[in-house]
Specification:
Two copies of one chain form a homodimer. Chain A has 113 residues and is of the alpha+beta class. The first copy, chain A, has a single domain, classed as Arc Repressor Mutant, subunit A (Orthogonal Bundle), CATH 1.10.10. Chain A contains five helices and three strands. The first copy, chain A, has a three-stranded antiparallel β-sheet with strand order 1-3-2. In chain A, strand 2 and strand 3 form a beta hairpin. At the A-B interface, helix 1, helix 2 and helix 5 of A face helix 1, helix 2 and helix 5 of B. Chain B binds a DNA duplex (20 and 20 nucleotides) through helix 3 and helix 4. Chains A, B: This is Helix-turn-helix transcriptional regulator. Chains A, B: Keywords: DNA-binding, Transcription, Transcription regulation. Chains A, B: InterPro entries: HTH_HxlR, WH-like_DNA-bd_sf, WH_DNA-bd_sf.
Chain lengths: 113, 113
DNA sequence: CCGCATCCAGCTAGATACTG
DNA sequence: CAGTATCTAGCTGGATGCGG
């Protein structure tokens, strides 16, 4: 049982809201599955994302403890992002959604927001 | 392992996108935890939602097979919404997120989108 | 290379009013 | 009761250009 009053903010609800932000899942999954990457490489992995949004999402994920940011103060600078242990556990939990998602996807009707 | 190229659309990603729509989770959880309800009652449960959005979200969830719509063609009309088996399985899968969400929530820093 | 500042267009959620 | 129609304001994301 999910112990959560829908009218109130609960951790699961908030977490879902966070993950639901634009480009958040693609970033999360890229870091989880394809491993750490520097800013530019990550931008190339996530086709279509703008610098602005990538920066913003990464900052948010970092603030929430899902992403590590490692900065080499060289010239030019090198900044590497990677998944934290917390993010790995999160992604493992998301696997539980896979079965339902697959079955749903087999016969869903498009148009989703 | 989540077998999903972040650059491509995969079922889990799409499902998350769907759930991420405004008011979607509150509606889903209300139907799952508090049971079936008629339109007006549901609107009262989900504090702050507008008729327009509630209708739209319910229509979408119905189209995707997560919600059942039962209409009594009386006067005045009575329409009852309830969770489908698929939605129940979805919510059970979401429970796996609970542990991570709780731990995260214990020390997250606000500001999420 | 890794961003940030700025500007702008488009969507969308809310408010409001109305109907079978 | 259970929606639908319309109008609008505000946010937000894309594009662009610049800077340490």
């Amino acid at each position: 049982m999910i112990r959560c009053n829908p009218q109130l903010e609960c951790p699961t609800n908030l977490l879902l809201a966070l993950l639901s932000g634009p480009w958040t899942m693609p970033i999360v999954w890229s870091l989880f599955e394809e491993g750490p990457a520097r800013f530019g490489a990550l931008k190339r992995r996530i086709t279509g994302i703008s610098s602005r949004l990538l920066t913003e999402r990464l900052r948010m994920l970092e603030a929430q403890g899902f992403v590590d940011r490692h900065e080499e103060k060289t010239i030019p600078p090198q900044v590497t992002y990677s998944a934290t242990e917390r993010l790995r556990r999160l992604c493992q939990a998301l696997e539980a959604l896979g079965a339902v998602a697959d079955e749903w996807h087999a016969n869903y009707l498009l148009q989703h927001t």
